Amino acid sequence: MPRFAANLSMMFTEVPFLERFEAAAQAGFDAVEYLFPYAHPEQEVAAALQGAGLTQALFNAPPGDWESGERGLASLAGRDEEFVEGLETAMSYAQALDCPQIHVMAGIPGPQGPGRRTVEQALNHEAAEVYTRRIRQAADRAAAEGRRVVIEPINHVDMPGYFLGSVALGLQMLERIDRENLGLQLDLYHAQITDGDLTRLLRSSAEVIEHIQIASVPDRHEPDAGETSYPHLFSVIDEIGYSGWVGCEYHPVGRTEDGLGWFHALQSDAGESGQSGKAQQ
């Protein structure tokens, strides 16, 4: 069974951020992720993480001016100094949180005109050169501390104009950037919208997947409804040998704990399987 990490930017929002760590632990999670920790000093975040006995699976590097609509700097021309400063901030938090990997967001490089870019159009866009250089820079900086960088394709319904707009493009960029400590953050919610064919996508991308995230499609709620069959996808995740965390990046329909029936059922099934396995030994 996959190992699940609670996303504290979306889950357990009934309590303040630093209290969500303990709430996640009490609900049965062993790890957490979130968008950004930077509103709190790294020592406070680390204390909350360690106090709850949790593992930090992932967080994002600073995205630029989020409030004004920026969604990352990696593909934005003329922002070199800010990108480097943000990268250093992320590395400092990663060290405090003992976090093995950081997601560096691509950003929205500007109006793209009518329709969406094809993979070929994106690869030939001027932003691709900036993005390639910046992600190489981020990966090299992370490698100096034994950490990884991941890139995440995000759909254009939720984030219009985002440079990395499909898994197909993400795979092409991984090959172009060519860094050993660089991998794919595969959010199955986004991937269903951008690429579809999730079973084959998981199998064909297995070698480069470093982090997986889940949510129902199309509403981005608990992964027990909507058009995707997560019980099937969890079996595929096991089949491909993925051993990393699966981030629960969804908006609960109501109170977070009230929507965790799918999670507790999987825990129960795993416990019964473990007991059965021990009985057979």
From TrEMBL:
GO terms for molecular function: hydroxypyruvate isomerase activity. It comes from the Bacteria. The active site is at residues 152, 249. One of its GO terms (biological process) is glyoxylate metabolic process. Transmembrane segments: none annotated. Keywords: Carbohydrate metabolism, Isomerase. Residues 21-264 form the Xylose isomerase-like TIM barrel domain. Belongs to the hyi family. This is Hydroxypyruvate isomerase.
